Amino acid sequence: MPAKSKAQQKAAGAALSAKRGDTKVGDLQGASKDMYDSMTESELEDLAETKREDLPDTVDEED
After folding, report:
1. Which of 5, 39, 42, 44 is in Cβ range 3.0-4.6 Å of 16 for a Cys bridge?
2. Cut 0.85: pTM above it
């Protein structure tokens, strides 16, 4: 599942970094912390590897 916004892609990258032990879990905030707790490494990879070029900065939660 590709990311729907640049913000989501960035948060997934931060959560993935923590999952892999490259970043401290305590450094995560907001969406990235929620993603770390609720998603697998594979799911995070799918979101984080999305190309940012055509993504909007943010997307409303209602979508």
Report:
1. 44
2. yes
